[in-house]
Amino acid sequence: MRFVFIFCGILLLVTNACAPLPTPTPLPTLPPPPSPTAIPATPTAQPIPVAQPTLAPALLDATLPRLAERSYTSGEIRTTQVLTATDAFTTSLVMYESDGLKISGLLNVPRGDGKFPAVVFLHGFVAPDQYTRGLDAQAPALELTRHGYITLVPDLRGYMESDHGLNLFLSGWIADAINAGNALKKMPQVDAQHVGLWGHSMGGGIATRVMVVSDVFDAAVLYAPISANMEDMFMDPFGGEPAGVTQDLIQSTIAALDDAKFRAEISPINFLNRVNAPVSIHVGTADTVTPKEWSRAIRDQLKRANKTVEYFDYQGQGHSFNENARPEFYARVLKFFDANLK
Which of 1, 8, 28, 51 could form a disulfide with 261 if both were Cys (CB 3.0 to 4.6 A apart)? Predict the structure, then answer.
């Protein structure tokens, strides 16, 4: 999987296209990030001043404080096709509703009676025309299913059969993840008190943001996540999603990126004191796509806020772990979820 997540300000004045860059690049013109010591290390979230009200309402609604205040509407998970049925589990193509949009995905259910804990797996970023269902999330999801977990791997909005919808600064994908968790809790086979979240790369960045705006998940695994600080990287503010993007919104978005308050409000590093679920972070020391420093910053800020967090470096591993590291990685993830979801 290739990580491409950029912002092209000049081109957005006339088009909605962005040319890919090989790696995330520091923003050269933005002021330095807020000092981590300015964020209270207490369990109670402290508000950050609201961004300038002259920005488009849709942009203000994409800030993390607004996302924490709003409600989310999910539908029940509906099976459209059984893809695999073994003595251990079934894998089905499913659909669920996310704020009125239809989201497709894979559902893996272990054989057996009673209720099971469940985990939502969020895939990383790839261009929609290069995306394959499940991408980097289905293999680890099946590992958990073999150990007694129901797992859901959504195709986030804009992918596969999922509907298109506005996705300013990941806010649409954040909603799809939250609604996936709520949809799982409606399944009679799911133990609704024990639902977790796993995300790789961009999916890890979405998971980081979900944790600060919602308590729907009871534990979270971040696997080589993108930065929690908007000052660290260029980002396509529309998530590659043209739906709902107008020229006025483009102009307002350019202005928003010049607003330090707005940038702070879309950076989860400033809100990690809101996290209530335990977190497990995994990253390769040779990762050049989402550098280990980004994961360590999340770890350090969670520790400052007295949150429960564990962190693992994988020596010599890149953005996606190879067969030498995967067994240890899977074992640690299973141990973490068993401790917090069973």
Answer: 51
Question: How far is the CA of 262 from the CAs of 46, 200, 202, 267, in angstroms?
Answer: 16, 25, 20, 9
* Structure-token match 């739906």, residue found: 243
For residues 86 and 89, give the distance between their C-alpha atoms in angstroms, rounded to a whole number. 5
Using CA atoms, how far residue 318 sits from 22, 201, 298, 302, 326, in Å, is 15, 12, 19, 24, 12
Neighbours of 323 (CB within 10 A): 6
CA distances from 255 to 13, 17, 66, 237, 316 (A): 12, 18, 19, 12, 40
- Residue segments in the chain with a per-residue pLDDT below the cut of 50: 1-45, 51
pLDDT digits (tens, 9 = 90+) for 102-135: 999 999 999 999 999 999 999 999 999 999 999 9
- What are 229's two structure tokens? 């600080």
- For residues 55-68, b (16+ Cβ closer than 10 Å) or e, as one string? bbebbbebbbbbbe
Q: Is the dihedral of CA 192, 194, 199, 204 positive or negative?
A: positive
Which helix or strand (DSSP H or E) is residue 195 part of? Answer: strand 190-200
Residue at 145: amino acid letter: T
Q: Name the pairing type of β-strands 150-154 and 116-122.
A: parallel
Provide the whole-model pTM.
0.86
Sheet with 101-110, edge to edge strand ranges: 78-85, 89-98, 101-110, 150-154, 116-122, 190-200, 220-223, 279-284, 309-314
- Pair 155, 161: CB distance under 8 Å: yes
What pLDDT is attached to residue 48? 54
Residues 236-291 pLDDT 10s: 999 988 999 999 999 999 999 999 999 999 999 999 999 999 999 999 999 999 99
In this prediction, residue 39 carries a pLDDT of 38
Query: Which SS3 state, helix, strand or coil, does residue 181 take?
Result: helix
Question: Whats the size of the chain, residue-wise?
Answer: 342
What is residue 235's predicted lDDT score, i.e. its pLDDT? 83
d(CA 101, CA 163): 6
